[in-house]
Specification:
Shape: globular
Radius of gyration: 20 Å
Structural class: alpha/beta
Strand content: 15-25%
Length: about 375
Amino acid sequence: MRRMNAALAAAAVAGLAAGAAPAEGLKVGMITTLSGGGAALGIDVRDGFMLALKMHAAQGRAHGIEVVVEDDQRKPDVAVQLADKMIQSDQVDVLTGIIWSNLAMAVVPAATAQGKFYLSPNAGPSALAGKGCHENYFNVAWQNDNLHEAAGAYASSAGLGKSFILAPNYPAGVDALTGFKRFFQGEIAGEVYTKLGQTDYAAEIAQIRASEADSVFFFLPGGMGIAFLKQYAGSGVELPVVGPAFSFDQGILQAVGAAALGVKNTSQWSKDLDNSANKAFVDAFKTEYGRLPSLYASQGFDTGNLLISAAAKADVSDADAFREALRAAEFASVRGDFAFGPNHHPIQDIYVREVIQEGEVFTNRIVATGLTDHADAYAGDCQM
């Protein structure tokens, strides 16, 4: 992959790639999940995003960005109402923050149709990556399938030949299992879609036990993943588990504990990635919030720095120039390398991590690179 130069890496520590002074008056509407079962994810995205702005301001640079933050309560109708308010009353220029793909599908198409920019720090539904792509929509995290594709590739390389797979029944869950199957070369012993928000997995674990599978792949973010892992660990089923980072991220691991030790999971980011921007981010996040950053926090941080880098080059009132500034992605990502593909989704490395324990803290370390310079499967259907 391309390696960022030293000047760009240094700029990441300040929170802004080198450029002209940012334009004043850029207003951002952040709609994210701050209450209920998925609150930890939205809080981390918000905190990472705001940290990017704070680190930038600490260098004596006025970024000229105002942020309005609202809680979508993980409800599509609430997210739509908030987006309408932000666009019509608050008159925001850019929207961001949504965690869940069903909420993104309810908000993003309408927002971009009204000329607003949307920067996704998490949700990456396939419908917005292919035929439904839009010139004002940029995903700063991944396309939903990506981490699951890497999990499928890893499971095959590890010699697993018959996997039971499960995910919630919503757009990201469908994309997850689609992505895993795209790269998994073995047999699918069972495929189950659970309810979104489900916390009792006795029936699913019974199906796993009866399936004759040699492994389990699951995508259950937030509290769903915590509940499943605890119940699975106590079930007596001892099949190896593979999953994406969403089910083994920093906040989840503290709740699950030793039951997750040794599990392999896939991610485009890890706190031990060896680049100066990431080291500065991890240290600053721990200092600011008193906890280790999560994948979601890293995505919020990159989203904030992408926005700052674009504002330094162009005024949002000139939509064409601002769009090109976003597309250039001239910021130092905590991932080390970052570039947008033709559908405004990342091209990036995806790593295999292992759950470990450091003192009293459960966390992850990189053990391999799963996919290199990986783009999504839908870019060819995007026409813009």
